[in-house]
Amino acid sequence: MSSTTPASDDRPQDPQQQDLSDAPRQAQPRQAQPRQAQPRRAQPRDAQPHQAPRPQVPGRWRTAAAATGLLRPDGTVASTIFAEMTNLAARTGAINLGQGFPDVDGPHAIKAAAIRAIEHGHNQYPPGTGTPELRRAVADHQRRRYGLDVDPDTEVLVTTGATEALAATILALAGPGDEVVTLEPFYDSHAACIALAGATHVTVPLHPTPDGFRLDPAQVRAAVGPRTRLVLVNTPHNPTGTVLTCAELQVVADAARAVDAIVVTDEVYEHLVYDDAVHVPVASLPGMAERTITISSAGKTFSFTGWKVGWLHGPAHLVEAVRTVKQFLTYTSGSPFQPAIAQALADDEAPRALAASLATRRDLLCEGLVSAGFEVVVPRGTYFVVADGAPLGFDDGVELCRRLPGLAGVVAVPVSAFCRAPGTDEASGPTAALALASRVRFTFVKREDVLRDAVRRLGALRST
Predict the structure, then answer these.
(1) What domains sit in the chain, N to C, each tagged with a CATH number?
(2) 463 pLDDT band (50/70/90 cuts)?
(3) Which residues are in the Aminotransferase class I/classII large domain (predicted)?
(4) Residue 25 pairs with which residues in a beta bridge?
(5) CA 444 to CA 23: how far, in whole Å?
(6) pLDDT grade, residue 15 (50/70/90)?
(7) Which residues contact 303 (CB under 8 A, 6 or more apart)?
């Protein structure tokens, strides 16, 4: 059984650090592992005599840092690869296609609605569950788009972005002894929240194919077992851009139902799908509404990532459990933004226009990456594309990302940052981090002129 942590630029290699978290694993024969006390780490031989020992700060923060690959062997915490690449872009003047945030605001009408709300006094605590207006808008949106019958009074909870919705849900519904299954690669917040809950992270790899990254049904069924409490599904998927098919989601649903597990879906990119791809909420599948928590947010759909307005819906008893935790995290969420997002959710045109624009920008970047020598899996959702640097002679995506600003004046992030630490598991074969080691992620949620400049710069790779 693998005890590695998710890949990062700095991850713990000392085996003494490996018991700091319930580390992610792929499906194995289930065997309890006794917890062993760890000896206190000796000070490095070359430490300065006058330096005081680094204070030991106990607590769950170490578990979260280890689960996301950020805890160094000496107990310090490394910067995330995202922070490293953003700093590298600022230092070198490179175009930052690593972090996924828009470089233009969303529709003016939505901003104007928030301004009106501020001017009309919506500046104090709103209801902890969210304003009735926004909860109704979420329920109406789900009914209109997906045919889901959602009670806005008991089955909807407004959160401070999807990140809080995920954290509150995992903390409320999972704990020590439970397993939480996710796809791999995974958004780093998923791993951190699972670790903070004290649960064990089990992963199911997505496999690259010419038609996108796909699930192996047998691996899904092997990962979900009697200790599985939650199955967390992100579709459309960050970082791969995959939109899971109805057949793939049905495999997940069947596996969860067989062990009475709850499915938690991260659907923040639900409107950003392209070509003939269709986003299917797990809650819309037969028999799944009663065991699914659906999470989404306004940031990706309307290009207001800094507003941090998210929501979740599900069966009333599960929403009540999540609300109990949420109220002690942030209590409530930004008052003037809620009426603005309620107004936005009633309009289907803005998300359609954004998706159409992003499809054009996706094609521009993908064509440029192929021309530069990358191998590309064209995404059918999100605003990310995964490119393979192996044809350019780079087997290590981290090395490529660190050299790319100097080689081409562009910043990306390695896909291994979204995986557990590299290693080989005897039962499951190579881990996702090894299988995807040469791949890097670019975003195309930038202005078209910025992407054209990036494509021009990437052309320099042809001569390296």
Answers:
(1) 81-105+350-463 (3.90.1150.10), 109-347 (3.40.640.10)
(2) confident
(3) 94-420
(4) 202
(5) 32
(6) very low
(7) 102, 104, 105, 106, 354, 445
Q: Which residues of 180-198 are buried (b: 16+ CB within 10 A; e: fewer)?
A: bbbbbbbbbbbbbbbbbbb
Average pLDDT of the chain is: 89
Give the count of beta carbons closer than 10 Å to the beta carbon of residue 211.
11
How far, CA to CA in Å, does 45 sit from each of 41, 49, 53, 56, 171? 12, 10, 13, 19, 41
**pLDDT for 222-274, tens place per residue?**
999 999 999 999 999 999 999 999 999 999 999 999 999 999 999 999 999 99
Q: What is the pTM of this model?
A: 0.87
CB 100 within 8 A of CB 445: yes
Structure tokens belonging to residue 255: 């596996």
The pLDDT tens digits of the residues spanning 54-90 come to 778 888 899 999 999 899 888 899 988 889 999 999 9
For residue range 288-334, what is the model confidence (pLDDT) as tens digits?
999 999 999 999 999 999 999 999 999 999 999 999 999 999 999 99
Q: Long-range contact list for 325-328, CB < 8 A, 24+ apart?
A: 325/168, 325/171, 325/172, 326/128, 326/157, 326/159, 326/164, 326/165, 326/168, 326/172, 327/128
